[in-house]
Amino acid sequence: MTSKFSRIGFILAAAGSAVGLGNIWKFPYVTGEYGGGAFVLIYLLAIAFIGISVFLAESVIGKISESNAVTAFEELAPKNKGLWKYAGFMVLSGLIILSFYSVVLGWIVNYIFISINSLPTDVKTAETTFTTLITQDIQTQIIFHTLIALSVVLIVLQGIKKGIEKANIILMPLLAIILALLLFYSFSLDGFSKAISFMFVPDWSKIDEHALLAALGQAFFTLSIGVGTILTYSSALPKNANFVKSSVLVAIVDTSIALIAGIIIFSFLFEAGAQSSGGPGLVFISLPLIFADWGMVGQVIAILFFIALAFAGITSAVSMIEPILMYFIERLKFSRVKATITCGLIFYIGGIIALLSMSTSYGEDLTFFGKNMFDWMDFITSSITLPLGGILCAIFVGYVMKKDTLEAHFLKFTTKGVFNAWYFLVKYVVPLSISILMLNKLGLLG
Ligand code: PHE
Q1: Which atom of ligand 1 is nearest to the CA of 223?
Q2: CA 242, CA 289: separation in Å to the nearest integer?
Q3: Contacting residues for 99 by C-beta, under 8 A, at least 6 apart
Q4: 229 lines ligand 1 (CB under 6 A)
Q5: Which is nearest to 350 in space by CA: 324, 332, 312?
Q6: Longest Cα separation, the chain
Q7: What pLDDT does residue 429 have?
Q8: Whether residue 232 has its Cβ less than 6 Å from ligand 1
Q9: Residue 160 and residue 54: Cα distance in Å, rounded?
């Protein structure tokens, strides 16, 4: 590992990775689709019992090994090293996620400009603005995707401390300030109390096995687990840093921000009498309309909102590519520059494929088995490789690594009770619940 985080740098970077489009764009619309309160409750349980356990598993593997994911599994496995190293290839997921994530980030930057110029004032225009962008305006999407790709590459080129830590130290507080302003504004709206009851009073009628899986997938995606991100960041922790406390803190920050983003967005929506079930277009179609309705104040809020979203997304994007960079640098002896350019090119091309697959001109050629490439990238990662990465980490610490080693590591920072609870969760609860949900989703269970 070339450079190390400072303790606060690690917490900010891990929180920066966790807090992203998953919290501000995805969480509200998935919550809206599954009817609110009950879904939120399941999501919170998934974070508390599965998410934090996997987070800690990844973190302890990274911290003990102090190396990239592939070397970590290889070194820490007492036997079958040659096989276990393949678990480390979960880092490939980062490049797949980054391909479509960069495209969505590009839409967001485009919406910063739309907010500055002129917001759509009626439903029809709001819808066509968004659908034209994603189905016809290939050029604009490529320009903004390129801009995002370059920013990500420039940040990671500087390395852990000067690039990633620095970007997070600047962007994360700004994000917090913008969200706080938006939250205060939403207090003053009548929609606020409706938002609170929508999000915290459970309505069980929309909850089925799809909702359970969506909650689990969301928990993984939002905490950045199953990709090797937390493993890689933890490998750059200073020796005496309390990884248990930091992990729990990051999960709390991430969850709070998702809830706050939900409260803000639903307050806005209910204030305007809009529907909560707007799907992925919620932030791009429903919100701009509401902002437009509020005149000047709305325009300022719109600009702040999309800037916050862009900041949150950039700090997550850099964390998706760092794990595979570390693999290239440590194992294949690439320089950071060469590794960054190689991986940058891969996700850049991946992003172009993703955006073309949604266009009317090329969509058909890039659609396989009824799903376009953009949706495939999302599906393969959220529903398959992330949960799989999570299970592998849980099995590795629960069954492969020596319990004594783990225990000694945990007891430096926490009590035996906490260790035992975590060990039970990673050994039994995590593998069982994830396998049942995954097999179910893939249609392999009845
Ligand atoms: N957690 C990020 C978000 O919520 C996404 C992410 C996934 C980041 C996997 C890194 C690794 O947007």
Answers
A1: 1
A2: 45
A3: 347, 350, 351, 353, 354, 377
A4: yes
A5: 324
A6: 65
A7: 96
A8: no
A9: 23
Ligand 1 and 382: CB distance under 6 A: no
Nearest ligand 1 atom to alpha carbon 386: 9
Q: Would you say residue 1 has pLDDT above 50?
A: no
- Does this model's pTM top 0.90? My answer is yes
Give the model confidence (pLDDT) of 121-135 as tens digits. 888 898 899 999 999
Q: Which residue from 320, 381, 385, 386 has its CB within 8 A of the most atoms of ligand 1, so it is best to mutate?
A: 320
Ligand 1: centre distance to CA 407 (Å): 29
Position 135: which residue type? T
Please give the structure tokens belonging to residue 82: 């040659």
CA atoms of 251 and 21, how far apart (whole Å): 16
Distance in angstroms (rounded) separating the CA atoms of residues 271 and 269: 5
Any atom of ligand 1 within 6 Å of the Cβ of 218: no
- The chain-wide mean pLDDT, for the chain, equals 92
In the predicted model, what is the mean pLDDT of residues 399-404? 95
